[in-house]
Specification:
The complex is a heterodimer of chains A (293) and B (705).
Chain A (H helix, E strand, L loop, with lengths): L1 E9 L7 E6 L20 E4 L18 E3 L3 E3 L9 H5 L5 E4 L1 E2 L2 H9 L10 E5 L8 H12 L3 E6 L5 H7 L5 E5 L5 H8 L4 H12 L4 E7 L7 H13 L3 E8 L4 H7 L14 H13 L7
Parallel strand pairs in A: 2-8, 8-9, 9-10, 10-11, 11-12
Antiparallel strand pairs in A: 1-2, 1-7, 3-6, 4-5
Chain B lengths: L15 H11 L2 H8 L3 E2 L11 H15 L23 E6 L2 E5 L2 E4 L2 H23 L5 H27 L3 H9 L8 H17 L3 E3 L1 E2 H14 L5 H14 L20 E3 L12 H13 L6 E5 L5 H11 L6 E5 H11 L3 H4 L3 E2 L5 E2 L4 E9 H9 L9 H24 L2 E4 L5 E3 L6 H4 L5 H4 L10 E9 L1 H17 L5 H9 L6 H10 L8 H21 L10 E2 L5 H4 L31 H10 L8 E8 L6 H17 L4 E6 L2 H9 L8 E3 L4 E3 L5 H14 L1
Parallel strand pairs in B: 1-2, 4-5, 6-7, 7-8, 8-9, 12-15, 15-16, 16-17, 17-18
Antiparallel strand pairs in B: 2-3, 9-18, 10-11, 13-14, 19-20
The chains are: A alpha/beta (293), B alpha/beta (705).
């Protein structure tokens, strides 16, 4: 399985204390992506310029990726993601995002914090899109269940319905991303239609899968009453949805975008203000939606 | 009237007048009054200089009780005050020719069980019985001193009765006329009884802890509630007054390690002698008062075990979130095991409390002290002197253990000199110490044996060697093992030369050791294994010292902020720290080296066999206010406490603090008078700490966040 990162002691990605596994690879390309380094399924060289002391230990790269003028720059197009430079870098400025791990290895990492999973905590598979890992996700989920670890999966929903069906009995909670209820905007900002996503959501719901809808609020893009009403309608149409969680857009993904050599796509105007957030929350509450957090 | 909070507004349950009383007390009203009268004078006593120490002491206590100012705070429901300023400085507050004559006693929790069960009258009976048994022996003078101090206590008590009557505090007067000399029957009487006995010890300069307050008081409150004598609201007001009175030594100003370290600790929850959880109404009222007033002067520790009610755990989490660092957690089961394996009898173990910080002891029976030393200093200045070289890591490590053993033996040697060897019956003979009669009255065993607290009277006599710089030492050893012996990037003499030059010109290597190795606190088994061995070997060294003198020498791990004094004298370390930079506190990771979050820190710490650290090993964790928000935050805090005990932790201090707020308090101290922080084993108002201490706490806060 292709793992971007494992984060321990997370409090805001499902109930209780959780270990979150971020997988690499995502079928969506959201303009506001919070974890841009997880979009590509392939290993990627990350470079955090502020940690670099220009020691040139990485200069021996046979592909000639590392260029030293007055500062250290990268010719990323030449990089084959071999990771050799990352083991030479003394400061940790260079690292490779995308480590191959087996479900068993992941289970061991997850179990490290098992004593803290009391009161409903556990593991959250996230990313990226966990279901892009295919059958291995099921294997990991099975291992977790077998070892008494509560499971949550954060999914964009744009995945194989067959895989989802098999996952339902293994997942205690789906954190289901509903980026936008307006299909035209969904296409424009994420690159795909929301049709499959919503169909999958209904499928999972009809088969008893427990869900929490995670809705990103991007100011000026989807912070409108029509969207809130559509979320409310969707929520009420589901049998097993515990509520809606509103996630305000934040620009923290940009540092990670820069480190992975992607374009800086941050939009300060997308950050929703307190009032916008409160309005969204109240709009949903007034339509009988249970709000988490 | 706001009380500092790191996290939202504190709830309001207490009456306006009680809140006002707390506000005034926290803002130094009574502390400044106390500081203004430092001592009573002994100058008028004829031939004072020629008297024996014991006679001087008895006269000092007598003069204090006769002449200490009396204080009745407006509207107080609990009476009695320790009103002499030198007591705040750990002296018996009586001076001869301008100087205090005696030091007082601290680092213990005295026996309040006898106070509420038998009253001071019961203690007096014991003295008389012992006097009868020891008449004509060398123990008689001490027992006469006991009687003299009890008489002085009665004089002070009588002065309060009169003053309260005169001031129209009839209810207070009625309660105080029964206790503490008689046995209390109601909650208010029991609370007043404990307070007055506590205040008397403090009046005479001592700094005792109180211990298991809910266990001492729970039955009294239950009875009052059942018989309709008192409501919970009234009980909360009374308890709040007890807490507020406990702030009477807060003077403000800036002095070293802060203004709140008078070791007046409380312990709540846990089990009784039959194994039953003792949580009761008082337990929750203690948390209510701390939650509302944010008073940090009674650092309070929960004895957490499997049967601790979920409701209590949740209340702990709720209160911890407001910050102030007032609450901490003991892993009761592990401490039981620890005390039993050290050799304490089973019937004593369940009573454990602490010395006022967190070093575990049997309350009311222990003469306790600990001896701090810096393990990193031993490593740097003994084992790794210039030119040192070892063929293998194991050779280096065993050389370090030899040096460590010598350091511990040196500490114990010092205490051997306090002894005069053994008498003809093989018992230890104790050298002369400062008189300690007042404390001896509240320490089981002293009266019966006819011996003072400091001369073998206590049931248990402990001088615990405390390993400081633990994480710094572990990290140094780990970096050397990796760099020199495994990766062979340089030789040991080369590395030592680099460290001597403070990493100058070696930035690449310095960054390498900093970013490439995962140190203690990151749940890296390879490094933590060194911590595990080091603690085990240290414990074995301490065991080897047992029996050399009359003191027991169980081990512990602490720094209590001493890392601040040590840091400027420690050269660069192999894990990338430059000379003079910040060092690790207690058994916590070196600031800046833990990168995997709170659960990884707890796991690293818990890999150590902490049951071997008999007097304790504290882990300090600081969380950001944003991390404890909402229901998720309550889950997080309870999960940390539960995981900590499941994994075999010893003592956890959880504080919620924000570096930005602490910086603001440095800049505008006037606006943050009541901001309390956990320093180490104690709390202090942040603005009363010296700049160096403040910076250290900010560094810890920011590194952990």
């Amino acid at each position: 399985m292709k793992v971007a990162e494992i984060q321990r002691f997370c409090m805001h990605d499902g109930p209780g204390v959780r270990t979150v596994i971020f997988f690499k690879g995502c079928p969506l390309h959201c303009a506001w992506c919070h974890n841009p380094e997880t979009q590509s399924p392939h290993p990627q060289l990350l470079f955090e310029a502020k940690k670099c002391i220009a020691c040139r230990a990485c200069g021996e790269c046979p592909e000639g990726v590392h260029v030293f003028a007055h500062i250290h720059t990268l010719r990323r197009e030449k990089c084959v993601s071999c990771g050799n430079c990352t083991s030479l870098c003394p400061t940790g400025a260079l690292s490779l995002c995308g480590k191959e791990m087996t479900p068993k290895e992941l289970l061991a990492a997850i179990q490290r914090d098992a004593p803290f999973y009391q009161n409903g905590g556990g593991v959250t598979l996230s990313g990226g899109e966990p279901f892009l890992q295919g059958e291995a996700v099921l294997e990991l989920l099975k291992l977790c269940k077998k070892n008494g670890i509560s499971t949550a999966v954060e999914t964009c929903g744009f995945v194989s319905p067959a895989l989802l069906k098999e996952a339902i009995p293994l997942v205690d909670l789906f954190l289901w991303d509903v980026k936008d209820t307006d299909d035209a905007r969904h296409k424009a900002y994420t690159g795909v239609s929301n049709k499959t996503i919503l169909e999958n959501l209904r499928l999972v719901d009809s088969l008893g899968g427990k869900t929490r809808l995670r809705c990103i609020l991007v100011s000026g893009v989807n912070t409108n009453d029509a969207h809130y009403s559509a979320i409310a309608k969707l929520y009420h149409s589901l049998q097993n949805c515990e509520g809606v969680e509103l996630l305000p857009y934040h620009p923290y993904g940009d540092a990670k975008a820069r480190a992975s050599g992607m374009d800086d796509t941050s939009h300060a105007e997308w950050i929703p203000g307190e009032e916008t957030l409160l309005h969204g929350k109240n709009a949903l509450l007034s339509q009988g939606v249970s709000i988490h957090g | 009237m706001e009380f500092y909070s790191a996290f939202g507004k504190r709830p309001v349950r207490l009456s306006e007048s009680t809140r006002r009383f707390a506000y005034d007390s926290l803002h130094c009203r009574y502390g400044r009054e106390t500081a203004a009268v430092p001592t009573v004078s002994l100058d008028h006593i004829e031939n004072f200089a020629e008297l024996t120490d014991l006679a001087k002491y008895d006269l000092a206590i007598r003069e204090i009780c006769l002449h200490a100012p009396l204080r009745i705070c407006e509207g107080e429901k609990i009476s009695g005050s320790a009103t002499l300023g030198e007591a705040i400085r750990h002296h018996v507050p009586a001076s001869f020719e301008g100087k205090p004559v005696f030091y007082a006693v601290s680092h213990l929790t005295t026996d309040f069980e006898t106070v509420v069960k038998r009253g001071i009258a019961g203690i007096r009976d014991d003295v008389l019985a012992s006097l009868k048994a020891h008449r004509g022996t060398d123990r008689e003078p001490f027992l006469q001193s006991c009687l003299s101090c009890l008489d002085s206590f009665a004089i002070w008590h009588g002065r309060y009765l009169e003053a309260l009557k005169e001031a129209g505090y009839e209810e207070n007067c009625a309660v105080l006329s029964k206790v503490p000399f008689g046995v209390p029957t109601t909650f208010r009487e029991a609370l007043q009884s404990i307070w007055f006995a506590f205040a008397f010890q403090r009046l005479c300069g001592n700094w005792p802890g109180i211990g298991r307050i809910d266990w001492l008081l729970g039955d009294f409150l239950d009875r009052d509630l059942a018989e309709g004598r008192l409501t919970l609201e009234e009980a909360r007001e009374l308890l709040a007054h007890f807490f507020i009175k406990g702030c009477e030594w807060i003077c403000g100003g800036n002095y070293g390690s802060g203004d709140a370290q008078h070791y007046q600790n409380l312990v709540i929850g846990g089990r009784d002698g039959e194994g039953k959880d003792i949580t009761n109404h008082v337990t929750y009222l203690v948390l209510d008062v701390i939650e509302e007033l944010g008073i940090g002067d009674f650092p309070t520790t929960l004895r957490l075990h499997k049967g601790t009610p979920q409701k209590l755990l949740r209340r702990m989490a709720e209160v911890i979130r407001y910050g102030g660092g007032v609450l901490a957690v003991y892993n009761e089961e592990l401490i039981y095991q620890s005390l039993l394996s050290y050799g304490y009898p089973k019937e004593e173990v369940w009573k454990f409390a602490n010395d006022g910080c967190w070093e575990v002891q049997i309350p009311g029976k222990t003469n306790f002290g600990y001896d701090p030393f810096d393990g990193l200093q031993v490593l740097q200045q003994k084992t790794l002197q210039t030119g040192a070289d070892f063929a293998t890591y194991d050779a280096l490590y065993s050389a370090y253990l030899t040096d460590l053993e010598a350091a511990v033996a040196g500490i114990v040697e010092y205490h051997c000199h306090e002894m005069l060897g053994k008498d003809d019956r093989g018992r230890w003979r104790w050298g002369d110490w400062t008189p300690s009669t007042v404390i001896s009255l509240f320490e089981g065993g002293c009266i019966q044996a006819g011996l003072p607290y400091f001369r073998g009277g206590a049931v248990y006599n402990i001088r615990s060697p405390h390993f400081g710089g633990f994480a710094d030492t572990v990290n140094s050893l780990y970096a050397i093992r990796k760099l020199v012996y495994e990766e062979q990037k340089c030789t040991l003499p080369q590395l030592l030369a680099i460290l001597e030059k403070d990493w100058e010109g070696e930035e690449v290597l310095r960054r390498y050791v900093q970013s490439r190795y995962a140190y203690f606190g990151n749940d890296n088994d390879e490094c933590d294994e060194i911590a595990v061995s080091l603690a085990k070997d240290f414990a074995a060294i301490c065991r080897g010292q047992e029996g050399r003198c009359g003191y027991g020498t169980p081990p512990g791990i602490s720094t209590f902020g001493r890392q601040l004094e040590w840091a400027p004298h420690r050269r660069a370390t192999p894990y990338g720290r430059r000379a003079g930079e910040v060092l690790a506190g207690n058994c916590s990771p070196t600031p800046g080296t833990d990168k995997e979050g709170a659960t990884a820190v707890i796991r690293s710490y818990c890999k150590i066999d902490l049951a071997e650290m008999t007097t304790g090993a504290a882990l300090d964790l600081k969380l950001l206010p944003s991390a404890v928000k909402g229901e998720d935050g309550i889950f997080a805090v309870t999960a940390l406490m539960q995981g900590f005990t499941t994994l075999g932790g010893f003592f956890l201090q959880l504080d919620v603090a924000d570096g930005a707020i602490l910086r603001a308090a440095q800049a505008h101290p006037e606006a943050y008078d009541t901001l309390s922080v956990r320093v180490s084993g104690w709390n202090a108002r942040f603005v009363t700490l010296d700049r160096g201490w403040q910076d250290m706490i900010i560094a810890q806060t920011e590194e952990h966040s």
